[in-house]
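hey so u asked for the seq, here:
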Amino acid sequence: MHRSKVSEFIENKFQGHDIEVLGGGHHSQAYKFETEDNTLVLRISPKKDHFLRDKFIADRWPDLLVPKVVETSRFEGGGYYAVSEYVEGNVLASGWEFNPELNPKDVKDSFVEALVNIAKTDVSSTSGYGKILDDGRGEFDSWQDFLMAVFESGTGANIKIKRQVEEGLYDSKLLEQAEAATRKLLADTSTYETKHLLHGDFQPHNVIVKEKDVVAVLDWGNAKYGDFAYDIMWCVMHGPEVASLKEIKSTYKRSGLDTTEIHTRLKLAEISILISWAMFSNEIGNYDNAKSDQARLNDLLAS
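ran it, structure tokens below
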């Protein structure tokens, strides 16, 4: 989306001024702007559901560090927009580059605490597991169903990956090995059905830091219900410079969260994450990354 078109929209819709580009991800763009009363952030994306998930989390659990979503609707230039309250601070990282003004280790305690607090959120009144749908339900009946969905004929994930296999983008034998390993790990543990709120993409570029404290957790578009081992593994795979797996596991255990059979649960999560990463990289045409993730999956299954 061209900046001039976005600026015109902000000026006309919100009487905004002092518009500043904050950046963006694979799907979205973000702009900070001033109004008479507030400092706000406008995000634009072709995906509406990510914004709805942000709003659901912020409204349902206001004690979490989620910027309040003021408004979300269709963007006149195509796609959707969401307006959120601006939180003062700096992102810990942009992409894979850490903010030079911040020492990742100085933020470690607050970073891990924010992750633990997500896992400790009360989700007892919710239903389902996996991706959180527009009405707040989880997409699947169990965490096992979520982990197995990519292998089960007829599911959205299975249809996508079969197409990639047919196009020569995904190794069918590797997928068979991943399915066998997942089934065995599920049979070897009884604690994977633990249910918690998951951010689904907790990493340095999705947190805002002020001084040494995490003051906001951004981008809840991949939020799920399920085993917190998934969030731990995702975090470690993206931000080992902030906190090690050992440090995170220790903090979870001290906080009273059940880390029984955590090694098996983490491996289940890692298999699922690597499959999804390779699928996503293929979808956006980043075939080198897709091959790299499949190589990592192969190494994991061989270990």
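DSSP finds ten helices and 14 strands in the chain. The chain has a mean pLDDT of 92.
lmk if thats what u needed
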